[in-house]
Amino acid sequence: xxxxxxxxxxxxxxxxxxxxxxxxxxxxxxxxxxxxxxxxxxxxxxxxxxxxxxxxxxxxxxxxxxxxxxxxxxxxxxxxxxxxxxxxxxxxxxxxxxxxxxxxxxxxxxxxxxxxxxxxxxxxxxxxxxxxxxxxxxxxxxxxxxxxxxxxxxxxxxxxxxxxxxxxxxxxxxxxxxxxxxxxxxxxxxxxxxxxxxxxxxxxxxxxxxxxxxxxxxxxxx
Length: 222
Fold this sequence. Notes:
- With 222 residues, the chain is of the alpha+beta class.
- The chain has helices at residues 11-19, 24-33, 38-44, 50-62, 84-87, 90-101, 115-125, 176-180, 186-192, 204-212, and strands spanning 66-70, 78-82, 136-142, 145-152, 155-160, 168-172, 195-198.
- The chain is built from ten helices and seven strands.
């Protein structure tokens, strides 16, 4: 990728050369969730032109971050997936997502929330130190998106779909960020309708959710 060469013998500069082009990081983010067909990636990245997605995937393949694989029959589809080298980006992207979340305000009019971005958001904001002794299952519904999170042994597993044995089913919009950022309390979020508890879930579990998935405030400037 000579056009983006920084001409510095530095690991960070090399990482920026490999991943710094527009759309590269969201592509890697979505592939962290699961391998995907070209059409799956395009559907999950609203606004990306087909030619740009093709170019980014080719560049990431050349960098040995992404590879193509043919699924067994009867599917026979070609999917893109992270290589072992690409999968090493998970910790870095989770940390970067946690850092970037501090600058999230209200969604802009054209901002989209996708299933994969929400899954990675929960992974990024999960706080293992708050999960000592906690075993809980959550289902989060945001419009047509339904994902779930299983917490046990100070770890979290986040995936697509509903969860039959969820301790709490939460219905919310992007305003749930205020709860996760500590800008509103669980009780106030429920009272305002920002967050709704579906079914017979225990309301106190929303307090647990807010402690486990947290966005830290941006440090104050001097």
